[in-house]
RNA sequence: GCCCCCAUUGUCUAGUGGCCUAGGACGUGGCCCUCUCAAGGCCAAAACUCGGGUUCGAAUCCCGAUGGGGGCACCA
C-alpha cells in the first residue's frame, strides 16, 4: 500500500489518435492509485492544439478506457468540481497565470517571427550547437514590451529560464534528477494565437485540479525541470512526479513506428486498445498483461484481476527500465483469464465471434459447447474455428481427411461402417453410452483409438482437430451424427 | 551534436551487501497424461554488458566505458 492519503490523479490524453497500450497502462496505474487510496481518477482532454485534433478521438479514448474497466470520476462527459475538463475550454485560465509569470519576471513577451527563429535554428544546427532560443527578447524593457503587445504586435510568451545554477527534481522511480538551468530553453508558454501550450496548461490544470501524482510517460523527463520551475515560479507545491518507462517493439529495439503498429493487425495483434476486443482478447487479460510491463508484485505472482490490483498496486514497485511488448505473453494471460471465466460468461462472450463468422448460434447450444472449448482457445476468435461445426447444417470433409493414418480409404470406410452400426444401436448419444462400445470396437479391430475415433471425428465435425469427440456428438445429437457418418462412408466408398 | 533516463536468461521480471551454486513467468526442448487439439504435471537449456574502485564480502554501492531508450516545435 503506497499511500493512505486519497490521491487525485489524472489521465490527460490529447485527442490526436488512438488510445494505445502505453496510454492504457498510464491510465490503469492512475486508476489503481485513485481506487486504492479512495481518491479520484480524472480524465482531462488536452486539446490545445486545434490543428492536430482528430474527430472522434476523444470518444474512442473514452470507449477504450471503459472497455478496460477504468471508469473515471471526473471528466469532460460527466463534469466534476474542477471543470471544465477540456483544455480548449480553459483558455482564459492559462492567460491569467501567464500574466502572473510575466509580472514576477519569470516569463517575457517575445516578438520574434517564426521565420527568424527558423533561421536561428538552422544556423545553430549548422554550427553543431543545441538548438535553443537565442534570447533576443529576453531583456526588452517590460513597459516597452507591454506597449508593443497593446499595439497589436504578434507575440508569444516564453518562460524566462534561469541562466545560472541548477535545479533538482524528484521522480518517484528514479530519485533526484539534477540539471543545469542553462540547458533549459526559454520554452514558449503561450502561442501567438493566445492558446497555452502543454508546458503551461498542464501545470496550471494539475495545480487547479489538485492533482497529487502526475503519472506520465518518460518522454516528459527532459522537460520535467521546466515544469518544476513553473510550479515554483507560481509559488505552488509540486505533485509527485512519476515517469513511466516506454514500451518498445517486441524486438526491444526502439519504439514502434506508425507503420509497424498498423502492420501488427495482420498477425492478430495490435497496440491500439480499440482492436483487442475484435482480436478475441479479454479486457481482463490486457489489464493483467500491461500491468506487469513495468510493475511487479513479488517474485512469483502474475495472475491478477482489476480488483486484485486495486488492492496490491504500489508505486514503489514500478520499474524504470523500458519494456519490450510481448504478445505471446498476452496470449498466455488471455488463456488464463478465459479459463477463469464462469461458463455462462464465457458462452456469452464467444457468441459475437460465431455471429461474425456467419453462423447462427443459439444460446442453449452455446452454453453446452462452452465447457468443452473453454480451455482450448487462446483467443475468443478461435471459438468458431474450433466449434463452428456445431452450427453448420453440413460438414464436408474430403475422403483424404477421412482416411485414418495407416489405413486405406476402403479400410477406413469399413471401420466407419462398424462405428455407424454401434452409434445406431446406442440408446442415447452420450459419452457414457457411446464410448464403451466404441472402445470395444477399437480393441476388436486391433487399431488405435486415434485411428478409429479420428475417422468419426472427421466425419462428424469435418475437422481433424476438435473438442472431445463423445461430448461433441452428444451436443450434435444422434440423428445428425448418423447422418454425417453415412455421408462420410459414401465419400470414403467413392474414393476407395 | 547536446541534454536526460535505463542496463539480470530471447522476452517480462524478483533481487536493495552475505539467505544467489541468481527465484518466478512467457517462449523453447524433452517426458507424462491422452480419442485429436488444448489444459495440466514433471524435467532441461538459458542471464547479472564490460572495466575500474569501495568492502572481509557486490547482481546489489561509486566512477568510467559500452549498449539501449527518450528529448531537443508557436505537438503532446
From TrEMBL:
Major subcellular location class: cytoplasm
Substrates-to-products reaction catalysed: tRNA(Glu) + L-glutamate + ATP = L-glutamyl-tRNA(Glu) + AMP + diphosphate
Residue ranges annotated as motif 'KMSKS' region: 255-259
InterPro entries linked to this entry: aa-tRNA-synth_I_cd-bd, aa-tRNA-synth_I_codon-bd_sub2, aa-tRNA-synth_I_CS, aa_tRNA-synth_I_cd-bd_sf, Glu-tRNA-ligase_bac/mito, Glu-tRNA-synth_I_codon-bd_sub1, Glu/Gln-tRNA-synth, Glu/Gln-tRNA-synth_Ib_cat-dom
EC numbers: 6.1.1.17
Keywords for this protein: Aminoacyl-tRNA synthetase, ATP-binding, Cytoplasm, Ligase, Metal-binding, Nucleotide-binding, Protein biosynthesis, Zinc
GO biological process, one term: glutamyl-tRNA aminoacylation
GO molecular function: ATP binding; glutamate-tRNA ligase activity; tRNA binding; zinc ion binding
Domain named Aminoacyl-tRNA synthetase class I anticodon-binding: residues: 347-489
Binding site for ATP: 258
Function in brief: Catalyzes the attachment of glutamate to tRNA(Glu) in a two-step reaction: glutamate is first activated by ATP to form Glu-AMP and then transferred to the acceptor end of tRNA(Glu).
Protein name: Glutamate--tRNA ligase
Annotated organism of origin: Leptolinea tardivitalis
Phylogenetic placement of the source organism: Bacteria, Bacillati, Chloroflexota, Anaerolineae, Anaerolineales
Amino acid at each position: 500500500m503506497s499511500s493512505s492519503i486519497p490521491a487525485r490523479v489524472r489521465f490527460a490524453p490529447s485527442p490526436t489518435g488512438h488510445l494505445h497500450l502505453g496510454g492504457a497502462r498510464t491510465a490503469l496505474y492512475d486508476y489503481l492509485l485513485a481506487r486504492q487510496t479512495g481518491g479520484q481518477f480524472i480524465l482531462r482532454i488536452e486539446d490545445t492544439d486545434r490543428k492536430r485534433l482528430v474527430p472522434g478521438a476523444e470518444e474512442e479514448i473514452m470507449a477504450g478506457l471503459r472497455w478496460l474497466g477504468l471508469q473515471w470520476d471526473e471528466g469532460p462527459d460527466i463534469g466534476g468540481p474542477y471543470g471544465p475538463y477540456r483544455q480548449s475550454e480553459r483558455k482564459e485560465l492559462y492567460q491569467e497565470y501567464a500574466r502572473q509569470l510575466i509580472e514576477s519576471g519569470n516569463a517575457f513577451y517575445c516578438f520574434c517571427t517564426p521565420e527568424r527563429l527558423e533561421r536561428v535554428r538552422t544556423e545553430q544546427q549548422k554550427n553543431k550547437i543545441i538548438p535553443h532560443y537565442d534570447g533576443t527578447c529576453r531583456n526588452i524593457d517590460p513597459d516597452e514590451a507591454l506597449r508593443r503587445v497593446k499595439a497589436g504586435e504578434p507575440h508569444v510568451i516564453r518562460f524566462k529560464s534561469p541562466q545560472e545554477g541548477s535545479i533538482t527534481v524528484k521522480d518517484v522511480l528514479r530519485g533526484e534528477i539534477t540539471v543545469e538551468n542553462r540547458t533549459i530553453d526559454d520554452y514558449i508558454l503561450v502561442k501567438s494565437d493566445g492558446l497555452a501550450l502543454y508546458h503551461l496548461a498542464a501545470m496550471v490544470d494539475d495545480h487547479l485540479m489538485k492533482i497529487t501524482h502526475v503519472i506520465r510517460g518518460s518522454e516528459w523527463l527532459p522537460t520535467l525541470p521546466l515544469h518544476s520551475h513553473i510550479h515554483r515560479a507560481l509559488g505552488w507545491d509540486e505533485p509527485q512526479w512519476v515517469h513511466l518507462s516506454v514500451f518498445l517493439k517486441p524486438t526491444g529495439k526502439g519504439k514502434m513506428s506508425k507503420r509497424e503498429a498498423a502492420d501488427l493487425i495482420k498477425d492478430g495483434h495490435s497496440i491500439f486498445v480499440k482492436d483487442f476486443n475484435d482480436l478475441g482478447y479479454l479486457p481482463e487479460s490486457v489489464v493483467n498483461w500491461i500491468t506487469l510491463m513495468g510493475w511487479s508484485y513479488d517474485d512469483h505472482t502474475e495472475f491478477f484481476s482489476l480488483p486484485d490490483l486495486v488492492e496490491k498496486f504500489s508505486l514503489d514497485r514500478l520499474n524504470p527500465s523500458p519494456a519490450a511488448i510481448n504478445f505471446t505473453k498476452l496470449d498466455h494471460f488471455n488463456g488464463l483469464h478465459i479459463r477463469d471465466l464462469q461458463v455462462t460468461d464465457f458462452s456469452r462472450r464467444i457468441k459475437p465471434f460465431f455471429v461474425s463468422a456467419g453462423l447462427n448460434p443459439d444460446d442453449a447450444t452455446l452454453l453446452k459447447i462452452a465447457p468443452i472449448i473453454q480451455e482450448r482457445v487462446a483467443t475468443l476468435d478461435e471459438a468458431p474455428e474450433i466449434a463452428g461445426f456445431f452450427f453448420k447444417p453440413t460438414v464436408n470433409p474430403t475422403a483424404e481427411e477421412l482416411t485414418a493414418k495407416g489405413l486405406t480409404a476402403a479400410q477406413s470406410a469399413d471401420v466407419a461402417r462398424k462405428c455407424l452400426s454401434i452409434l445406431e444401436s446406442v440408446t442415447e448419444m452420450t459419452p457414457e453410452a457411446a464410448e464403451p462400445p466404441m472402445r470395444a470396437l477399437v480393441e476388436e479391430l486391433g487399431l488405435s483409438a486415434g485411428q478409429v475415433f479420428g475417422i468419426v471425428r472427421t466425419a462428424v465435425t469435418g475437422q481433424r482437430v476438435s473438442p472431445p469427440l463423445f461430448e461433441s456428438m452428444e451436443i450434435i445429437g444422434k440423428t445428425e451424427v448418423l447422418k454425417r457418418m453415412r455421408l462420410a462412408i459414401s465419400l470414403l466408398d467413392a474414393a476407395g
